[in-house]
Amino acid sequence: MNHSHSQPPEASDLATKVASNRRSAIEDLLVTLRACYDPEVRSEFKVVIQGATGYGILPKDLADAFAVSTATISRWGNGSVVPSKFVRQLALDRIEKILTDNSISTA
Questions:
Q1: Most buried residue, 17, 42, 69, 75, by most Cβ within 10 Å?
Q2: What is the CATH number of the domain that holds 97?
Q3: 79 occurs within a structural domain
Q4: 8-46 tens-digit pLDDT
Q5: Where are the alpha helices (DSSP H) in the chain?
Q6: 61 assigned to some structural domain
Q7: Cβ contacts of 37 within 8 Å, gap of 6 or more
Q8: Residues whose CB is less than 8 angstroms from the CB of residue 26 and which lie 6 or more positions away in sequence, other chains included
Q9: Considering the domain boundaries, does residue 4 fall inside one?
Q10: Nearest 10 degrees: CA dihedral of 29, 87, 59, 98?
């Protein structure tokens, strides 16, 4: 029997592929958030928070970024509290920046 053994990928090749996949996932998330989120519809803001935390941004990091408590982030995420339209737009922009910066730093 002839077993063909391929060489394992180089660590740098694997890291590049993971970074590329991560950038692609971030881009997909951002497109989805922008497409699904209507700042006029207050109840949809929780989708933004859920998308960010679902992607891996910690509620504590969001709380630090917005200078609010983690309890506030939790209330935003479950929809029990919705900030003003102005704050919702700032939050979306900040989450986009966090995700984009994380994408660049992993490249």
A1: 75
A2: 1.10.260
A3: yes
A4: 556 566 566 655 666 676 677 777 666 666 767 777 788
A5: 11-36, 45-55, 59-66, 70-78, 85-105
A6: yes
A7: 44, 45, 47, 48, 92
A8: 55, 99, 100, 102, 103
A9: no
A10: 50
Radius of gyration for the chain, computed over Cα atoms and rounded to the nearest angstrom: 18
Domain limits for position 76: 14-105
Spatial CB neighbours of 60, under 8 Å, sequence gap ≥ 6: 70
Token pair of 104 as six digits: 């660049």
Q: Tell me which DSSP letter residue 8 carries.
A: P
Q: What is the predicted pLDDT for the residue at 65?
A: 86
Q: How many structural domains is the chain composed of?
A: 1
By the 10 Å C-beta count (0-12 exposed, 13-18 middle, 19+ buried), 94 is classed as: middle
Asked if the structure places residue 2 within a domain, the reply is no
pLDDT at 9: 56
